[in-house]
């Protein structure tokens, strides 16, 4: 893994990271916003302590653990990645309530255009802020965007100590099973 100096990471602040998307995905995973490591590398969930890639594999979404640099392989599994807020910051608490709301509006339009089967927001707090749903809990949501259903997942950040990789993989696995179920 490339090591970045603090100055190089800081230079990545506010940088945009391209989505990994296609029409008609099975699941579109949605992070809060890119961290500085993600912005510096151009690869989603790139910080070494982030558990997204291990959990994706442990939950059965991918046959092996992908590296952030292999993110484009997700498309071959019917998976993609976007963010609620596009700009990179060191911490999610640097985002304003207005940025979350505007991000939610833009995300809704993106989902309606791309029509994934499921939108999986990785971070229930981000979901609550983006869609003004203070009572949302981890799991499937009542909200839909056209035919796209929504699931709030635990945030895979290493800072989220309430969830282990194993318990996150169980919840991500619940989504994987729901996404595989073709019943209406």
Provide structural commentary:
The protein has 184 residues and is of the alpha/beta class. The protein has a single domain (22-180), classed as Uracil-DNA Glycosylase, subunit E. The chain has 6 helices and 5 strands. A 5-stranded mixed beta sheet has the order 2-1-3-5-4, with helices on both faces. α3 (52-58) crosses α6 and α4 (97-114) crosses α5. The longest helix is centred in the middle third of the chain and has 18 residues, at 97-114. The mean pLDDT is 93.
H and E string: HEHHEHEHEEH
CATH topology: Uracil-DNA Glycosylase, subunit E
Q: How many domains is the backbone divided into?
A: 1
What is the C-level CATH assignment? Alpha Beta
| Strand arrangement, major sheet | 2-1-3-5-4
Main beta sheet strand tally, sense and closure: 5 strands, mixed
| Proportion in β-strands | 15-25%
- Per CATH, the architecture is 3-Layer(aba) Sandwich
- The total of helices stands at 6
Instruction: Please identify the structural class as seen in this structure.
Output: alpha/beta
Amino- and carboxy-terminal Cα gap: 43 Å
How would you describe the shape? globular
- CA-based gyration radius: 15 Å
The helicity comes to 25-40%
User: CATH superfamily, called what?
Assistant: Uracil-DNA glycosylase-like domain
Mean pLDDT: 93
Write down how many β-strands occur, each being a DSSP E stretch of 2 or more residues. 5
- Poorly predicted sequence stretches spanning 5 or more consecutive residues: none
């Amino acid at each position: 893994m490339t090591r970045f100096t603090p100055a190089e990471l800081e230079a990545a602040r506010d940088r945009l990271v391209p989505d990994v998307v296609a029409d008609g995905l099975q699941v579109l995973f949605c992070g809060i916003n890119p961290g500085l490591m993600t912005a510096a590398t151009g690869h989603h969930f790139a910080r070494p302590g982030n558990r997204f890639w291990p959990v994706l594999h442990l939950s059965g979404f991918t046959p092996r653990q992908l590296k952030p640099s292999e993110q484009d392989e997700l498309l071959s599994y019917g998976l993609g990645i976007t963010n609620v807020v596009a700009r990179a910051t060191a911490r999610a608490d640097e985002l304003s309530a207005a940025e979350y709301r505007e991000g939610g509006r833009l995300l809704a339009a993106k989902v309606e255009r791309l029509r994934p089967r499921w939108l999986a927001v990785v971070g229930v707090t981000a979901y609550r802020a983006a869609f003004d749903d203070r009572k949302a809990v981890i799991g499937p949501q009542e909200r839909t965007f056209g035919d796209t259903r929504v699931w709030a997942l635990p945030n895979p950040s290493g800072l989220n100590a309430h969830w282990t990789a194993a318990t996150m993989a169980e919840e991500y696995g619940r989504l994987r099973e729901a996404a595989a179920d073709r019943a209406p």
